[in-house]
Every structure is written in C-alpha cells, then in structure tokens.
Design a protein that fits this description.
Blueprint: H1 6-11, E1 19-23, H2 27-40, E2 44-49, H3 50-56, H4 58-70, E3 76-83, H5 86-94, E4 99-102, H6 109-125, E5 129-134, E6 138-141, E7 144-146, H7 156-166, E8 170-173, E9 178-179, H8 190-199, E10 204-206, H9 214-222, E11 225-230, H10 232-248, H11 255-277
Parallel strand pairs: 1-2, 1-11, 2-3, 3-4, 4-5, 5-8, 6-9, 10-11
Antiparallel strand pairs: 6-7
Helix pairs in contact: 2-4, 2-11, 5-6, 6-7, 7-8, 10-11
Length: 282
C-alpha cells in the first residue's frame, strides 16, 4: 500500500487500542517492523529520529519505508520523530515522509507554538500530519537527552491553547514517562492524562513507551493514548539478537547472516508490542 499519515491511522484505530510507532535506523529495522505488522495485520508507524537520519540519510530512510509499505497490505505511516527545526521537518516532507513531529518543548510556550505553527502550515499544504510536544519528557533517546530537573508535565489548560494556536494533528503530553530505560518504578500521572484527553480534540501520543509494564501501557490507553512510541526496546532487541548470534557463531563473517539475526529479533519484539497495544484496554 501507499504510505498514509499518522493522523489517518490514529483516527481509524479500533476503540480501546493504540497504534505502535517504532524508531528505525536501517533496512533490517524497517523490514523487522513492517514484516511484524504485516504478519499480525496491524497498521504501524515507522519513525526516524534526527540522529537516525544523520546516520542513514533522509532519502534512504524514506525510500526504504516506501518500498516496504508498497510490498504489504497494511497501512503504514512514516514519521520524523523529535524534529528540532523547521529545516529538518521540511527536508522530511520533501522526501515523502507522511508525518512529522516538531519538538519545540525546549522553548517557552509562545516560541514552541510559533515554530509548530510554521511546520503545520508547510506540512498541511503537502497533506502531511504534524505531531508536537508540550511539557517535556525526560531521559535519553538517541542524541536527545533531557535531565530530570529539566523535565516538566503538561498543563491541561496550556494543552488546550497549544492545540488551538497551532492546528496540530497529534499532541504528545508529558505525564511522567521518560525516554530510554526507567530507574525504578515508572510514576505516571494518569489523572492529568485523562484531563488532557477530555479537553483536547486531537489524538494523544505516549513518548517513552519502552520499558513500561503492560498494565501501565493498558492504563495509558484507557486514559486516552492513541499512539505509543517505542525506540529503546527495539534497539536493545536488535543489538542483543546480533550478540547472541555471534556468541553462537563466533567464526561467522557473513554480514547477511549477522544482520538477519538482528532483523528477526526486531520482528519478534515488534510483534510482542503490537499484541499488547492491540489488546482492547477495557
């Protein structure tokens, strides 16, 4: 199928479920994610961060995902994750990304809204959906690192105003999740999430979806989350898959066999996560 926008997937998802969004870095990641989704018959969002795009190149990632999407029968969206500037969002839009996330959460409210609105105007002119973050999610994901003292939760009143001012399609609120692995038990503000979901009219996304217990993911979906981002769990799965293969086959030098082990580990991890997110949260 041709690529669709993240907005389309989120608005058409079954009630009580969320769409999985996975960060990729290369061909094997893309194949693992898309093949897992195809096997389960579940739509999926393939994402690439700025660091992944610097590594692989925006046109390479765009073409890889487009090729993968055209080979399967399920809807797939391609999204820029945590874009820090208008320029990177524009580059992705021009290369065929169907969704972009502009992350101005480091900026004061007015500056975040202005940057986001600029991206929205360009993206919507090209039929591309836009996600933005209000509040600040802590932790480390790729080259993005936010210290605990710099993270802050989303104010519901500001969320309403931010959506109104920017015209975004998807909102990423900060409710206590972190990028990367958790140090201790996650403490998520579900009451805040429910209030935001009640008051804004766009789908909500949970950043920091890796390393969360199943019951926390299910509760987040019950409280209004439509999209769950998973990056770190996938990176660990791929790397551990390669390590395990090389441990069992220390003399192997054929890259195809080594990389295939990582791809299979990616596929299994994605299937596991998609099963959780597709289980109706009642």
């Amino acid at each position: 199928m041709a690529l669709v926008t993240a907005k389309e997937l989120l608005l058409s998802r079954p009630p009580g479920q969320a769409v999985g969004a996975f960060n990729v870095h290369n061909m094997e990641d893309v194949q693992g994610v898309v093949w897992a989704a195809e096997e389960l018959g579940t739509p999926v969002i393939v994402m690439a961060s700025e660091s992944a795009l610097k590594y692989a190149g925006v046109p390479y990632i765009a073409q890889l995902v487009r090729t993968a999407a055209e080979a399967v029968s399920i809807p797939i969206a391609l999204q820029l994750d945590h874009g820090s500037s208008f320029e990177i969002a524009k580059a992705c839009i021009e290369c065929g990304f169907t969704s972009v996330m502009i992350d101005g959460s480091r900026l004061p409210f007015a500056e975040n809204a202005a940057l986001t609105r600029q991206v929205v105007e360009l993206a919507h002119a090209h039929g591309v959906s836009v996600e933005a973050e209000l509040g600040r999610v802590g932790g480390k994901e790729d080259d993005l690192e936010v210290a605990a003292q710099d993270a802050f939760l989303t104010n519901p009143d500001e969320a309403v105003e931010f959506v109104r001012q920017t015209g975004i399609d998807v909102l990423a609120p900060a409710i206590g999740t972190v990028h990367g692995l958790y140090k201790g038990e996650p403490k998520l503000d579900f009451a805040r999430l429910r209030e935001i979901a009640r008051r804004v009219d766009v789908p909500l996304v949970l950043h920091g979806g890796s390393d969360l217990p199943v019951d926390a993911l299910q509760e987040a979906i019950r409280c209004g989350i439509a999209k769950v981002n998973i990056g770190t769990d996938l990176k660990y799965a791929v790397t551990n898959g390669v390590r395990a293969y090389l441990k069992e086959n220390p003399e192997e030098y054929e890259p195809r066999k080594v990389f295939a082990a990582g791809r299979e580990a990616a596929k299994q991890l994605v299937m596991e996560k998609l099963r959780i997110l597709s289980r109706e949260a009642v």
